[in-house]
Design brief:
Sulfite Reductase Hemoprotein, domain 1; Sulfite Reductase Hemoprotein, domain 2; five-stranded mixed sheet; 2 domains; binds iron/sulfur cluster; 6 helices; alpha+beta; about 30% helix; four-stranded antiparallel sheet; single chain
């Protein structure tokens, strides 16, 4: 099916129904894209669901319609492979009165650099412009949170799924440039040392938090 894939969601009266999730950067969507999503949903009898991952799921679709739907959407699928960075979620930062640092610029940089990158296991990144950490940054594998002093904290090891875990704060008081460099090193250490299929939270639990921090610093 090439890029025209969808996930089998359920079987309705013996007919298979598929869901697709177009790539939307951190929930920021152009009006034209939103219009195209609404148009295909109407045309192909799709059901729209706003997801927790700042995306829009179009479901209840028939397999034979998927190639046309992707063509008419003029968008790419959000997730290509399971063991990859499956999402980079971001808060509206600069559009929010509580923001301590406008993290939108670095969120875009992180999205462009890491979204869909191969990893040992499924990985999510979250970025927030203040310690309210909207979007559940402490449940993400890697996070950036602007502290009350306007500098950045990097978190790691969060998970909201089958084995919930609150992320640890790995480093504090970083500038944007330092935080981006730190995350580069964190991923390099993770990719080089984790076992295949090992989520960051499990990796930290296996080697210990101090060893994890020391490993990043050694890169
Ligand atoms: S994390 Fe802070 S800056 Fe971002 S949306 Fe929430 S309150 Fe606003």
């Amino acid at each position: 099916m090439g890029k025209h894939f969808g996930n089998l969601q359920r079987v309705v009266n013996g007919e298979r129904r598929y869901g697709i999730t177009p790539n939307i950067m951190g929930g920021f969507i152009k009006p034209e894209e939103l219009e195209r999503i609404a148009k295909v949903a109407k045309k192909y009898n799709g059901v729209l669901k706003i997801t927790s991952g700042q995306r829009i799921l179009i479901t209840n679709l028939k397999e034979e319609d998927l190639p046309n739907i992707w063509e008419e959407l003029e968008m790419e699928p959000a997730v290509i492979s399971q063991n990859s960075v499956k999402n980079v979620e971001m808060c509206p930062a600069g559009f929010c009165k509580r923001m301590k640092y406008n993290t939108i610029g670095m969120s875009v940089k992180l999205f462009k650099k890491y979204n869909q990158m191969e990893m040992p296991c499924r990985t999510k990144i979250g970025i927030a412009g203040c310690r309210n950490a909207c979007g559940g940054v402490y449940s993400k594998d890697v996070g950036v949170i602007a502290d009350i002093n306007g500098l950045l904290m990097v978190t790691a090891g969060g998970s909201a799924g089958f084995h919930p875990r609150v992320a640890d704060i790995i480093e504090r008081d970083l500038t944007e440039k330092e935080a981006l460099e730190f995350i580069d090193k964190l991923f390099e250490f993770y990719k080089t040392n984790a076992e295949p299929g090992e989520k960051i939270s499990h990796f930290i639990e296996r080697i210990g938090l101090d060893e994890f921090k020391a490993g990043i610093k050694s890169i």
